[in-house]
Amino acid sequence: MGFSTLVLAAGAGTRMKSHKPKVAHEILGKPLLRWVVDAAREAGTDEVFVVLGEGRETVAPLVPDATLVYQGEQLGTGHAVLMAQSALEAAGVETLVVVSGDTPLLQPPTIASLVAAHQADGAAVSLLSMHVADPTGYGRVLRDAAGAVCRIVEQKDATGAELTVDEVNSGLYCFRTARLFALLAGLRNDNHQHEYYLTDVVALALAAGEGVMARLAADTAELAGINNRVQLAEATATAQRRINTQHMLNGVTILDPATAWIGPDVVLASDVEILPLTSLTGKTSIGWGSVIGPMSRVNNSRIAESCVVDDSVLVDVILEDRVSVGPRAYLRPGTVMREGSHAGTHVEIKKSEIGPHSKVPHLSYIGDAVLGSEVNIGAGSITCNFDGREKHATIIGSRSFVGSDTMFVAPVTMGEDAATGAGSVITDAIPDGTLAIARAEQKNGRSWTRKGKE
Ligand code: UD1
Ligand code: MG
User: Within 10 Å of residue 117's Cβ, how many Cβ atoms?
Assistant: First the structure.
């Protein structure tokens, strides 16, 4: 039987002390909310509903695949669920998973198994609880002498004795939707925070003679809620360890896992080597035998086989097989490096195609350019692509040899098998097989001796 998921993400996240809504903060390049929605998707949810409030213009674009519900005033988690009532009823949702947008480490099987247990049990309310070393901040799960759950008490409402309880509410629930809303009608806010707590639904269900099931989670780290920046860093470290371990078991060498930051959507082939202080984020993929790092940052890039990226930054880039980059290159969006090409030291390339086996070895800027195959760009050469208003293209034909410190004043074209003299400022097209020299001619003057050496 299917289920839908409601993610609560309207809170401001006051404890983050941020201008940015809490669920938009990122772990390994992916927003907290996105981690939760992706986990629900992987667990097989039908529809995803997200309750938004504070900073919704920032949060909404993160979840284009969800039905959005707006909570104008953040009156508590129970109130947030009530805001989704009509959308959920209109969609005919029978089984509903509710999860906080601030539990990014939640794993798909944990959601799926809570749903399965809930459906087998027939309870109206099911929740996942956990034993934690430090329960501070969480709602405590209170049980009676026989061990049955009787209610959840929030940190701020708990007595001294209740605060010592180390079984806490994870914030992951499964409900029979119709029963949930019948119970929520009785929700009150006579508590310390004057909020409508979703957690009160446990006591309400029991009072109404409904079944409540509290399952203990096996892994507590995955249910850690992020409320402040310390917890954000801890969760990042957990996610990092989890992801790196999986890659290493899949045949990736990670020399120093503590300083390799690999995003959840990165795909690495076997025999890839990740050297220290390297971060790979977004939709990045790296093919067999490529070596990335040390000190490299790669975002949303496709790197093929046997490439080397040393101490460089790549954003929205494609590298074909056997490309080498760096040390200290900056490849910007739209750069395509064809097979066997090279971008060397202090080289910046933007929105350009570097043809097969072409080389840009030292101190160059290549922007809005297309280089054919086996081109050699001399040190310090630059495409002057911007006239102050618009960007213009530079085309350089195959096997051409560009002398050091050549300026290409775009738009401009260099033919095939052509050459430029060092220091040339190229403003006109260069035909195939031609050497262009565009610089002041050298004049040797009178004889000269260094002072004091006469
Ligand atoms: C909540 C639970 C607590 C549990 C903990 C697990 C309640 C009352 N408490 O506490 O029992 O142990 O999560 O992490 O539910 N939100 C809204 N609208 C609101 C208030 C909150 O959408 O009006 C959202 C927040 O954006 C957040 C989630 O609900 O994603 C939980 O809110 P938060 O303030 O973090 O609750 P906790 O104090 O962590
Ligand atoms: Mg929380």
Answer: 15
Decide if 24 contacts 34 (C-beta within 8 A): no
Q: Which residue has the tokens 């896992």?
A: 257
Q: What is the pTM (predicted TM-score) of this model?
A: 0.89
Round to whole Å and give the CA distance between 344 and 379: 10
Whether 180 has a pLDDT exceeding 80, the answer reads yes
The closest ligand to the CA of 130 turns out to be 1
What strands lie across the sheet with 419-420, from one edge to the other?
253-254, 273-274, 291-292, 308-309, 324-325, 342-345, 359-362, 376-377, 401-402, 419-420, 435-436
Q: Active site includes 362?
A: yes
- How far apart are alpha carbons 332 and 348 in whole angstroms? 7
> How does pLDDT run across 40-62, given as a tens digit for each residue?
999 999 999 999 998 999 999 99
User: What one-character DSSP code corresponds to residue 142?
Assistant: E
Report the C-alpha gap between 75 and 78 in whole angstroms. Answer: 8
158 touches ligand 1 (CB under 6 Å): no
Cβ–Cβ under 8 Å, residues 331 and 337: yes
DSSP secondary structure of 240-264: HHHHHHHHHHTT-EES-GGGEEE-T
d(CA 394, CA 385): 7
**Nearest ligand, measured from the Cα of 75:** 1
Structure tokens at 306: 């046997």
Ligand 1 atom showing the smallest separation from residue 196 Cα: 8
What's the CATH code, domain 245-436? 2.160.10.10
Integer angstrom CA distances of residue 106 from 120, 222, 239, 386: 22, 5, 10, 48
User: Residue 196: CB within 6 Å of ligand 1?
Assistant: no
pLDDT of residue 12: 80
Q: How far is the CA of 226 from the centre of ligand 2 (A)?
A: 6
CB 138 within 8 A of CB 154: no
* Whether residue 327 has a cis bond before it, omega within 30° of 0: yes
From first CA to last CA, the distance across the chain in angstroms is: 99
| CATH architecture under which domain 4-223 falls | Alpha-Beta Complex (3.90)
CA 170 to centroid of ligand 2, rounded, Å: 9
- Structure tokens belonging to residue 374: 């086996």
Structure tokens at 58: 């920032």
Residue 113 Cα to ligand 2 middle (Å) = 22
pLDDT digits (tens, 9 = 90+) for 95-134: 999 999 999 999 999 999 999 999 999 999 999 999 999 9
Rg (CA), the chain: 30
pLDDT in tens, 419-446: 999 999 999 999 999 999 999 999 999 9
Q: Looking at residues 286-299, what average pLDDT do you find?
A: 98
